[in-house]
């Protein structure tokens, strides 16, 4: 099969071979959708199947997908931007205020504990300081899409625990991106200084805050004007333009493009056109996001991943990844709700962990066994969370029909989450205290 494909998709001389590229895209889309469907049948998020599809199509097995091919790389980057835009689009900052203190406490502990543990483990097992920093940064992630999907199916998304998880996940991901931006600066030769770290953090956080302030004035008027244009797709295209512009500006001011895409989603969350935008962008995401997940999988070197050193590092990272997030759930001592539920819901790294791993590869810091160990950590933590949450959550609280579990972000990454077990029964609502 490999020889047949090599002959069919062999590049022609003189630039990009469009027919070969189309065949590769066809193979990626078929494989990701097929294996994503198998993952859903196994009650697992579709992202796991798409990641496996990339591994199979990559150089370690079939050699069909080269993630470094320039056009595929651009498509993969677009998939990441859409993914982070969806995260921002579904983040309700107003709803998070009520549990803000607990969410920040869980999020802070969910960064410090896995980061410190991951750095210590990676360093102890022979990784360089830069590699250990990237590994540790990937440990801080929490998959908003997967956690939201599972909690929604269990009727827990709109409870205090669910809102704490969402708030903490947003905080973890933004700060994790700041950490990776700092590491990227170190790779570029800037060095690690307190001033440099503070500057990078201020740029990233300041950009998001500035976008929210400016967007609060501009976005409602802009989208209202666009909505009056009677041309199909205008609202969706305008939203996509906003994503591209904010991502480009974020990169120009020294932050990450995905922070710009996330900020664009936050800005458009409050607009009346949000659901129309979500529907339009999700349709595009069904094509581009699998390309990103497959490209990450194609980066995996199975031989290096299965080496004793990589397996040892991966096993240690998995333990630290699970324990660190679970302990973080107990950090807000005043919260009287179900802290174990919060901690376990923070465990899956999912699509966000893959983004961090890919950024490490692009920075030239993460490769071979270390990259494989991080991928193993992402896969196992994502695999563990849905069944564990189903056991811990029990019967959903009465009146908690969390109808948002089928939203755009969940469609793109977590279609395999388990359905809520057991009929609804009355349960006292936890108090924040």
Description:
This protein is an all-alpha fold and 433 residues long. It has a domain at 28-187 and 289-413: Na+/H+ antiporter like fold (Up-down Bundle). It is built from 19 helices and no strands. It has helices at 2-8, 18-41, 46-57, 70-89, 93-97, 100-124, 129-139, 144-153, 160-187, 194-227, 234-252, 257-268, 274-298, 302-305, 308-328, 339-345, 350-362, 368-393, 408-413. The longest helix has 34 residues, at 194-227.
Question: What's the short story on this structure?
Answer:
The protein has 433 residues and is mainly alpha-helical. The chain contains 19 helices and no strands. Helices cover 71% and strands 0% of the residues.
Number of helices: 19
Please tell me the overall pLDDT: 79
Low-pLDDT windows of residues:
416-433
Fill in the CATH topology of the domain at 28-187 and 289-413.
Na+/H+ antiporter like fold
**Fraction of residues in H or I helices:** over 70%
**CATH architecture title of the domain at 28-187 and 289-413:** Up-down Bundle
Using the alpha-carbon principal axes, give the shape. globular
First-to-last CA distance: 62 Å
Element pattern in H and E: HHHHHHHHHHHHHHHHHHH
Q: Major beta sheet, specifics? A: none
Tell how many strands the DSSP assignment holds. 0
Protein structure class: mainly alpha
CATH level 1 name of the domain at 28-187 and 289-413: Mainly Alpha
Rg from Cα: 21 Å
Fraction of residues in β-strands? under 5%
Write the layout of secondary structure elements.
Elements lengths: L1 H7 L9 H24 L4 H12 L12 H20 L3 H5 L2 H25 L4 H11 L4 H10 L6 H28 L6 H34 L6 H19 L4 H12 L5 H25 L3 H4 L2 H21 L10 H7 L4 H13 L5 H26 L14 H6 L20
Helix pairs in contact: 2-3, 2-13, 3-13, 4-12, 4-13, 6-7, 6-9, 6-15, 7-9, 7-17, 7-18, 8-9, 8-18, 9-10, 9-16, 9-17, 10-11, 10-12, 11-12, 11-13, 15-16, 15-18, 16-18, 17-18
């Amino acid at each position: 099969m490999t020889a047949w494909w090599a002959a069919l998709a062999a590049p022609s001389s003189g630039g990009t071979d469009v027919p070969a590229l189309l065949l590769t895209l066809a193979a990626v889309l078929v494989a990701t959708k097929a294996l994503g469907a198998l993952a859903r049948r196994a009650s697992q998020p579709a992202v796991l199947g798409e990641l496996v599809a990339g591994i199979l199509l990559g150089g370690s097995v079939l050699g069909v997908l080269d993630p470094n091919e320039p056009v595929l790389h651009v498509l993969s980057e677009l998939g990441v931007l859409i993914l982070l835009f969806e995260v921002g689009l579904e983040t309700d900052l107003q709803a998070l205020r009520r549990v803000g203190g607990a969410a920040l406490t869980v999020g802070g502990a969910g960064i410090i504990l896995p980061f410190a543990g991951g750095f210590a483990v990676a360093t102890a097992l022979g990784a360089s300081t830069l590699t250990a920093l990237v590994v540790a940064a990937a440990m801080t992630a929490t998959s908003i899409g997967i956690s939201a999907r599972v909690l929604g199916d269990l009727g827990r998304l709109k409870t205090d625990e669910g809102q704490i998880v969402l708030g903490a996940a947003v905080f973890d991901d933004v700060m994790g991106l700041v950490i990776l931006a700092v590491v990227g600066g170190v790779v570029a030769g800037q060095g690690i200084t307190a001033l440099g770290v503070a500057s990078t953090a201020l740029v990233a956080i300041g950009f998001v805050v500035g976008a929210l302030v400016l967007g609060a004035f501009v976005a409602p008027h802009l989208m209202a004007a666009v909505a009056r244009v009677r041309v199909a797709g205008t609202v969706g295209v305008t939203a996509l333009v906003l994503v591209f512009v904010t991502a480009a500006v974020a990169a120009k001011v020294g932050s990450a493009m995905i922070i710009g895409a996330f900020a664009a989603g936050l800005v458009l969350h409050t607009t009346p056109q949000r659901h129309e935008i979500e529907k339009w962008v999700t349709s595009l995401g069904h094509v581009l996001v699998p390309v990103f997940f497959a490209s990450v999988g194609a980066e995996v070197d199975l031989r290096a991943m299965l080496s004793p050193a990589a397996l040892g590092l991966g096993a240690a990272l998995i333990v630290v990844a699970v324990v660190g997030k679970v302990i973080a759930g107990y950090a807000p001592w005043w919260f009287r709700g179900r802290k174990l539920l919060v901690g376990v819901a923070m465990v899956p790294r999912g699509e966000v962990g893959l983004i961090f791993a890919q950024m490490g590869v692009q920075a030239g810091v993460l490769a071979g066994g270390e990259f494989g160990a991080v991928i193993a950590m992402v896969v196992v933590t994502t695999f563990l969370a849905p069944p564990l949450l189903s056991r811990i959550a029990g019967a959903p609280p009465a009146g908690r029909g969390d109808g948002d579990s089928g939203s755009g972000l969940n469609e793109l990454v977590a279609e395999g989450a388990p359905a809520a077990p057991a009929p609804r029964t009355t349960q006292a609502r936890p108090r924040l205290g």
